[in-house]
Amino acid sequence: MRPILVILFLSLFVGACSSALDDVKFNDNPYDNDYQGDRVITITNVDTVHSTTNGIYTAVSYTRNYGKSDGVKLYRNGVKIATNYNSIINSDSWYFKDITAVSGVTYTYEVRLYFGSGEARSLPYVYTTP
Amino acid sequence: MLTFMFAVISLLSTGQESTDQVYLKVKVIGLKKTKPFFKIDSTMYRVTDTVLLVSKGKHSIQIWSPTYKYIDSTIIIKKSDTAKYTFGLKHTKEYDAYKWNYTEYKRKSNQRYLISPMFVGMALGVAVYSNSTAKKHYDLALQEKYSYSISGSQSTMDQYESNFNNYNKKYKIMKSVEYGMYGISALLVANYVRLILKQKKVPVPVYKERVIFSKIDFYPYRDIVDNRWGLNMKIKF
User: Fold this and answer.
1) Which residues of B touch A26 (CB under 8 A)?
2) Which residue in the set B151, B168, B191 is minimally distant from A29, CB to CB?
3) Do A29 and B164 touch (CB under 8 A)?
4) Res A21: pLDDT
5) Which residues of B are less than 8 Å from A20 in CB distance?
6) Strand partners, A49
7) Do strands B84-90 and A55-64 pair parallel, antiparallel, or not at all (unpaired)?
8) Do A16 and B148 touch (CB under 8 A)?
9) Cβ contact (<8 Å) for A31 and B154?
């Protein structure tokens, strides 16, 4: 076979490539460590509530916009203090009641959407109880 | 390439020893399709198996068949002769050369017409197989991507991503092979067209019977009635 044909064949092999799957990215799973999309859970408000039935507590409201989850966990200063299970609540907008918050103390709250062992975190929310 | 035809001439001694004539058995072996020209003295025969009654003495024997060498010999028939004469007719050099050239021509022609399409078919077959395999890896890769998307475990997500990358790699390889094979097919087709055009220019070997042409005499004559020239031919055989 002529050398020019060999060169052409090799060029075709080397030059032929497919980019069909190159656009597939692995950063769209909010439970992945390298997730780069919008946050799927956000603390919308933290407020102190005076209730005649439940007394005084801190309400941590959040919004979530991702369907696949087992529930939401509430962290205060990095420590999990409560869990809302999907089997119990059926709403994308809900809140936690922190009945152990002490008046006049600054807390950092964080909610995490969880699915299996994966967690998607919200931005921390700093709140000082009145 | 030597093909022999044998003309066996046997002198039969049965019943004719007392006279001046003997039976001459002529048998030509080896020719199936054509009958050779056999000439004894001035009489020409075209037979393969016959018995002739000839007189004793010297006789001129000529044997010829198209594509064979012309044989011109003399036999002397004596009383009570039972000799057997065997003449081996051999193809002419021109015919042998023609046969060789024609065989080579057919071989090259077949090679040019058949080999390239076979390779084109093989290349396309590999390309189709590569396409099928690439599609399978493509689907598997997307399946891994979907599994990643619905996974809530970092370890399984990493595993799905790794699997995806493996399938993607195989997919790319098979796609490269597929495109390469399409390219090879195109080149082979182009080469095939080139070979066909080349083959079209190769003249088909033709056998020229020079012996018979050398035996033809041409006699031009004037046709007074039609007022034109004509040509008569005569074969000296």
Assistant:
1) 145, 148, 157, 161, 164
2) B151
3) no
4) 84
5) 138, 171, 175
6) A57
7) unpaired
8) no
9) yes
Ramachandran area for residue B124 (φ above 0: left; ψ -120 to 50: alpha; else beta): alpha
Say whether A30 sits in a helix, a strand or coil.
Answer: coil
More confident residue, B202 or A18: B202
Give the model confidence (pLDDT) of A34-91 as tens digits: 898 999 999 999 999 998 887 899 999 999 888 889 999 999 999 999 998 887 775 6
* CA–CA dist A27, B157 (Å, integer): 10
**A1 inside 8 A of chain B by CB:** no
What pLDDT does A4 receive? 65
- DSSP H or E stretch at residue A52: none
Ranges under pLDDT 50 in chain B: 1-4, 13-17
CA distance to A55, A70, A80, A85, B11, per residue, from A59 (Å): 12, 21, 15, 17, 136
More confident position, A118 or B13: A118
Cα B96 to Cα A67, A106, B71, B143, B184, distances in angstroms: 88, 112, 17, 69, 40
Beta bridge partners of residue B229, listed in sequence order: B222
Pick among A5, A12, A33, A66 to test the B interface (most B CBs inside 10 A): A12
Assess B171–A contact: CB distance below 8 Å, yes or no.
Answer: yes
